[in-house]
Amino acid sequence: MNNEINPDATGAFRSGYVAILGAPNAGKSTLLNRMLGQKLSITSKKPQTTRNRILGVVHRQSSQMVFLDTPGIHRARNPLNTRIVDAALSTLAEVDLILLVVDAINPDKASEQLLLEKLDQHQRPVVLALNKIDQVQRPALLSQIEHWSAAFDFSAVVPISAKRGEQVDRLLDAMEAALPPGPPFFPPESLTDLPMRFIAAEMIREKAIRLTGQEIPYAVAVTVDLFKEEKNGALARIHATIHVERDSQKGIVIGKNGAKLKQIGEAARQEIENLLATKVFLKLFVRVQKNWTKDTKALRKFGY
Ligand SMILES: Nc1nc2c(ncn2[C@@H]2O[C@H](COP(=O)(O)OP(=O)(O)OP(=O)(O)O)[C@@H](O)[C@H]2O)c(=O)[nH]1
Ligand SMILES: [Mg+2]
């Protein structure tokens, strides 16, 4: 037999949409990238890195799982964060399964309480990934497993390290078992539904977040103004703008003699080259859009 799709022991290929939910900084995007075997979703040690729904498809022999990485859930205080959290919660209604990711080192009690309330309302199966076990002692881990198993009726509880890839296959097995039988939604090989322009903008935002401190990560938005493939796809020419809220922030992003902006551009270019597998010419601009995080029109312009 020459079947492209290999059914499991019960004879069923399984497929479904899975929302990855959790508090900010739990390691959701790191886990998505690990499951995909490729960097798609940007990550950083600062909370509130992800701002949009990031779709990534995991292809297995006996299943296809379409993951929606989401922004960390928290009690939002400004218009940008309110929109972002609403977007994350709205994925709950669209999916077959929820993957709740919690940080086993630094639990975020308030955000997790909020999440459990939402999960109670939605009646979807939920798999729990207790993440960052590379940093947790065994007794502490066992008490966390006990705590979580009592807090909610999970389909499975799997301790993992997204960073090191530990137990991630076991987690995928547990999610596969919780999905309904069904055909694949995406063709083989497809990674995402996101346009390359968007992913390029995200890679630039990641470098701006990682290479600056204090308030800058929260004040940055990136737009791609030009994305042109040349030489039969061997070269991509990209012009992008980093938007900040204040003049002082513009100075920080540019740095002394333009050094910081150069560093951001260099790191982003390499990341985009890896993703596109082509040479990239990247030109960056910095612009002040006063208080854009509180301005509905600007939020829309920046895709939030
Ligand atoms: N030690 C350890 N750190 C991890 C692990 N997984 C993720 N991290 C770190 O946790 C931080 C946050 O990771 P992200 O993947 O950006 O977290 P997130 O949940 O997507 O965060 P938001 O998008 O802000 O909600 C980064 O510094 C990661 O390197 C892990 O398994 N072990
Ligand atoms: Mg994230």
From TrEMBL:
Residues 48-52 are annotated as: G2. GTP binds at residues 22-29, 69-73, 131-134. Residues 160-162 are annotated as: G5. Residues 22-29 are annotated as: G1. GO terms for molecular function: GTP binding; GTPase activity; ribosomal small subunit binding; small ribosomal subunit rRNA binding. It comes from the Bacteria. Residues 14-181 form the Era-type G domain. One of its GO terms (cellular component) is plasma membrane. GO terms for biological process: ribosomal small subunit assembly. It is found in: Cytoplasm; Cell membrane. It is a peripheral membrane protein. Keywords: Cell inner membrane, Cell membrane, Cytoplasm, GTP-binding, Membrane, Nucleotide-binding, Ribosome biogenesis, RNA-binding, rRNA-binding. Residues 131-134 are annotated as: G4. CDD domains: Era, KH-II_Era. Residues 69-72 are annotated as: G3. Residues 212-290 form the KH type-2 domain. Monomer. Belongs to the TRAFAC class TrmE-Era-EngA-EngB-Septin-like GTPase superfamily. Era GTPase family. An essential GTPase that binds both GDP and GTP, with rapid nucleotide exchange. Plays a role in 16S rRNA processing and 30S ribosomal subunit biogenesis and possibly also in cell cycle regulation and energy metabolism. PANTHER family: GTPASE ERA, GTPASE ERA, MITOCHONDRIAL. This is GTPase Era. It comes from Desulfosarcina ovata subsp. ovata.
